Amino acid sequence: MEKILENTLLLMILPWIFVWGILCILEKRKRKNEDGNKDEKSYVIQNDNMFFPFFSLGMFLFSFCLFYTVFFTEFDISEVISVSVFVIFFAILTLDSAIWRVIVDGDIIKYRSFYGITRTYNFNDITKGVYTKKGSLKIYIEGKRIFTFYDNLEFSLFENQMRKRKIPLEYKRKEK
């Protein structure tokens, strides 16, 4: 009876230890990235690649489930559609975390979109930056939005560089 209680107690504590370990790893990576981005002349802004293995694993597992469902079972079309939705979802997350980035090297800004298209801009061409209600920052050249930094990204170096160059930053207020 005591062994059963010990095992259940261990099973209750083990997930909390696992989550604590993952949070410690995330905090170390965040500090390492902050220390590595001290140079204000050249830096990279990108999604945190911590979740890339999880997204890749999810895409692989759901792809395997889709393959198995189609070729080895008598399936209903709703099963194929639902598993396909998860495959597409994890594929999009995997591509987004691996491809999207903004590279700043002095005055040159290289933006690589989700689709893998790379465009090069100059800091002197930027006309304004607009903060949205949700905390993201949209960058404009002559009224055309060129890219957006979402609130989950660390873009303070880019913002500081805009302020130093006297590029206007606007704030969208909630309309009442």
UniProtKB/TrEMBL annotation:
Pfam families hit by this protein: DUF6560
Membrane among keywords: yes
Keywords annotated in UniProt: Membrane, Transmembrane, Transmembrane helix
Membrane-crossing residue ranges in chain numbering: 6-26, 51-71, 83-104
InterPro entries recorded: DUF6560
Protein name: DUF5673 domain-containing protein
Organism: Blautia parvula
